[in-house]
Amino acid sequence: NGHAVTVGYETTADYQCFFSRFSGTIKNLMVKGDVHTSHARISGLVGLSNGGHIDNCVSMVNIHSTATGDAGYGGLVANHASTYLYLTGCMYTGTIDAPDAVNGGGLVGFSSGRTTITGCIMAGELNMGGTDNYIMGRNPGEIVVAGSLYTKAGNLIANSGSVLAELGADGMAN
Question: Is there a contact between 100 and 68 (Cβ–Cβ < 8 Å)?
């Protein structure tokens, strides 16, 4: 119910996030701060999701990484590995600064289970190497996006259709 948490730590292993492992429901939570890492599968909220609902959550977490190779960073969820995950009314406004790492997503770092993103905003910075980084989430075949916005151009997911719009500098969807 409108709770805010500030984080500031250096990870010592993969999946070290505010919620390292998750299944269930998270609602109305804001997480902000800075995470420093040389590990993979880090996000502003959830490390490993096994399904559930994340509703009306905001991540303002900046991820600073020295990792190389496949990192799987995400603004809200690092890795969704199971049945269904629903992100509704969420937003990421932090920065993922990992210039030597590849394979990340603005909201979801990687999804190997069905992920539905509805009414979310990706307003963060995704500064990663390589070309397999996606605005909303990586592994487009498992992600469906509806009624969501982004502020920075980049790789879109294949099955978003006309329900994903770029938010212009004037605050209007393009």
Answer: yes
Give 28's strand partners.
Answer: none
Whether the CB-CB separation of 143 and 137 falls below 8 Å is answered with yes
Reported confidence tier of residue 154, pLDDT bands at 50, 70, 90: low
101-115 residue pLDDT tens: 999 989 999 999 899
What dihedral angle (degrees, nearest 10) is formed by the CA atoms of 23, 24, 29, 35?
0
Tell me the C-alpha distance between 146 and 142, whole Å. Answer: 14
Do residues 59 and 75 make contact, with C-beta atoms less than 8 angstroms apart? yes
d(CA 68, CA 4): 31
Q: What distance in Å separates the CA atoms of residue 15 and residue 18, rounded to the nearest whole number?
A: 9
The tens digit of pLDDT for each residue in 5-41 reads 999 999 999 999 999 999 999 999 999 999 999 999 9
Task: Scan for tokens 């938010």, then name that residue.
Answer: 167
The structure's pTM equals 0.88
Cβ contact 2:28 at 8 Å: yes
User: Of 107, 109, 124, 120, whose CA–CA distance to 147 is shortest?
Assistant: 120
